Amino acid sequence: MLKLNKLFFYADEKDVFNEVIRPSQEQRDYLVSCKNDIRDHLRPRIKEATRKILNMDKSVEPRFRTQGSWSYKTCIQPAYSPHQEMDWDYGVYLPVAVWEQNGPPHAMAKLYFDLVERLLYDLCKSKGWELQTGKSTCIRIQVANWAHIDIPLYAAPEHKFNEIVEKSLALLSIDNRGRSMVHDSAFLSESAEFGEIPEQVWEDLDDIMMATRSGEWKASDPEAVSRWFNDRVEEHGEQLRRVCCYLKAWRDYHWKDGGGPTSVSIMIAIAQAFKPNRGRDDLVLESSAEHLSNVILGEIREFGIDEGAEDFNNRLSNVEKTLAAQRAKQFVQAIRMARSYEWHMKHQAITELQNKLGERIPYKHDWVEVDNGADEVRTTPPQRVSQPVVRRTKAG
């Protein structure tokens, strides 16, 4: 038996799978720069238009928030470029004073969406970016041949914004949670000074509505998944985040032109049944892929996210679910086969993994170790054994 953990995660080594699939510092810096350009362009112009175009009683500044995989810290390099791309989700939030029974004034949704799209058209023209207008729930900007930024548009009650701004300033100065906020904001290069609010206080913002291209308001809580997933990472550790990234990379490798399980469905499915095993990402990946192969056939709901209202696996048809389950089972078999080889067959073990994850798995046979089985024994749950029946006997 072989121990393959170091091929995935090995401290201070840049060639391990976990490091190779991460966005580079240069890519992150470029996307942060694009995000900041969008923020700085929209912030004063939306404020100016809130009275003139959106018919609000007073001028208000929008707020901004990085969401999605960069917020979860699960963004990875595409397996195939330019067929696949990195994405940065950057929400625009408008404080609204007038709140009707079902949200902001109905007419504002279309005005809001069209306004921001016009403003972004001017920015794209000056930057040489491509504005894509085909999506119904966000505005997409192609900022490079390997990346795009999606900009969904939200509104929420103005008094709630005032509360979270005050809370964010207070938390930054008084406790450990504030220190965590500083770390997360630094990672995303965000600042309350520029209308960007740290993730930890957004949980207090409810009654969020999303504007659509068709001019409707849709109830939305973009932070529900983030809160739940980050709580699971707090519970289980960073290994959970890494394994989710490995499975996203597996998905990308086998669905070159898109499709397969969504990133969110993978994250939720894995986190629901996650069992950490320190120093054995290979074993945890195997068990997580096996779990995914079973649950991907049905609905994926989580009561801790809006009381299970959404099926996060609803984008796949039954045929697509069956295909995803088959490929996940084949992945499990490949990991199991790779681990089962004798010590002199390390090269074959690496090849087995590369067949399922690509050549980003390092061909480092000296990182493959002999497995004495102790890790599996420690993580195997104890089985309840019934007491033996002792029959009455007579002495004599």
TrEMBL record:
GO molecular function: 3',3'-cyclic GMP-AMP synthase activity; ATP binding; GTP binding; metal ion binding
Keyword Oxidoreductase among UniProt keywords: no
Domain Cyclic GMP-AMP synthase C-terminal: 237-364
Domain Cyclic GMP-AMP synthase DncV-like nucleotidyltransferase as annotated: residue spans: 62-154
Single Gene Ontology BP annotation: nucleotide metabolic process
UniProt keyword Protein transport, yes or no: no
Extent of the signal sequence: none
Keywords annotated in UniProt: Antiviral defense, ATP-binding, GTP-binding, Magnesium, Metal-binding, Nucleotide metabolism, Nucleotide-binding, Nucleotidyltransferase, Transferase
Positions of region (Disordered): 374-396
Annotated catalysed reactions: GTP + ATP = 3',3'-cGAMP + 2 diphosphate
UniProt cross-references to NCBIfam families, sorted A to Z: cGAS
Protein name, as recorded: Cyclic GMP-AMP synthase
Lineage: Bacteria, Pseudomonadati, Pseudomonadota, Gammaproteobacteria, Methylococcales
